[in-house]
Amino acid sequence: MKTTINRRTFLKTTAVTTAGAFILPRFSIGQAGPSANSKINIAMIGAGGIARLAYDGCEGENIVALCDIDRRHFPEWAAGKGTPTYSDFRVMLDKMGNEIDAVCINTPDHTHFAATIDSMQRGKHVCTQKPLTHNIWEARTLRKAKDKYGVVTNMANQGHTNDGIRIMREWYEADVFGQITEVHLGINGPNWDSRFFKKPVQMPLEGQPIPEEIDWDLWLGPARETAYNDIYHPLTWRGFNDFGTGQFGDWFCHTGDGPVWILDLYDPIVVECVERGPCARRYDSRL
After folding, report:
1. Could you tell me where in the chain the CATH 3.40.50.720 domains are found?
2. Strand 125-129 vs strand 102-105: parallel, antiparallel, or unpaired?
3. What is the pTM of this model?
4. Which tens digits make up the pLDDT trace of 129-174?
5. Rounded Cα gap, residues 112 and 89, in angstroms
6. pLDDT tens-place string over residues 74-123
7. Distance in angstroms (rounded) separating the CA atoms of residues 23 and 193
8. What is the CATH number that goes with domain 7-156?
9. I need a labelling partner for 29 at 20 to 30 A (CA). Which of 3, 49, 130, 266 fits?
10. How far is the C-alpha of 18 from the C-alpha of 150, rounded, in Å?
11. Where would I find the H helices in 98-161?
12. What is residue 97's three-state secondary structure?
């Protein structure tokens, strides 16, 4: 969903949300600097892939910096615009911190936490793609950090912005379904023929030469040392536990979003595995 928002509205909402804990930036009302009615300055960490949706959602604002470990993503979004580009988001935040209001994080799952917490510690508002983190501890830590650093946070889940989920909520509140006691949901994946998953022929994957446009060390980030293979990058990292969260972090964020939000469900009491397929055991010797 696209929403028009100016800097004044953004900062006012921020101040209310953080109950006075947030110190307005240097360019806010009553301080020197650009007008409070100017646009929000946004930096992208991850300039390709799912970032395409982020660019659409930020239409009308200022994209002031792009960061990506793969320089091949820059020409489409930065060419001719003079937008500064970086491979390391820490360097970007160090050099341009005073010019950035908010950060949108569009990286693989395993680097969501590092990029998000670093941005929050620097007082930047964050929008991080789903799944928010790679594990539960990271999610709980970010929830604490939001309050500590007084920033506005958001998890980007494009499915939640569509009308379908709100219509279902209206049906539920109108008692169209009656008493709901059980919900079944699922997805017939992973689809090994899709652009998001590639079936490996062996594990561990054989190392390949690293393309000169890619900073592989930065792509790995907090993950363990792993040789480059084009099945990991670009795009098909999600099927490997070191980097992605499989179908839970992919489609479950969409299929599970409906019942959780509509029925006001919270932390589960019991989680039970009722079936385990052969794919993980066959293709990942580390499991």
Report:
1. 7-156
2. parallel
3. 0.80
4. 999 999 999 999 999 999 999 999 999 988 888 898 999 999 999 9
5. 12
6. 988 887 788 999 999 999 999 998 999 999 999 999 999 999 999 999 99
7. 49
8. 3.40.50.720
9. 3
10. 6
11. 112-121, 136-149
12. helix
